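note to self — DONT lose this again. spent like an hour looking for the file last time. sequence + predicted structure for the chain T wanted, 191 res
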Amino acid sequence: HLKIEDIPSDKPDSSMVDEPKEFKNSQKAFSKKIESFQAEQAQKKKSMFADLEKKLKEELEKLSPDEVAEFAIHFDQKDANAYHWALWGAAYTIHGGCSDDSFMDFRASLICLGKNIYEQALINPDSLADISFEDPDDSLLYEGYQYLSSEVYESKTGNELPPSKISFPNNPSGEEWNEKSEDDLKTICPI
């Protein structure tokens, strides 16, 4: 039998000493792989929103100037309908804050996610909880959709898009909430 006192104390078992270091290194490598995967997924999502913008622009370019102007009116009406405190509360909750400009991007992105998601969100903003929002930067704050009609119209005609026929409200509809009151946000949008 090996006696404990016979084990040289100046030469520890290298495998035991190295194990914590190896474990730590493998954890770092694993963390880097996860970070790389997350960055890749975020880029895919950003690409998805950019691709959606590109496809929408391509479809608008197929239309006549009058049809582009009609699309702009349709888009503006949907934007005005979504100018609601409860939706702003959802945007604020999802993204950990939401300025006026960000809420404009939120509404435009919501419209571009399609009729079903848009209409469900108008009826019940909590329905947005079913959509994955891992990173606020790559979710419903994509800026660009709301400018496409103007860009396409101008490129087709050389003129600015005529002013919208939609009367956009001065203030959001619905019950106003206070961003400093968690109870207000939980009442309006308990996601």
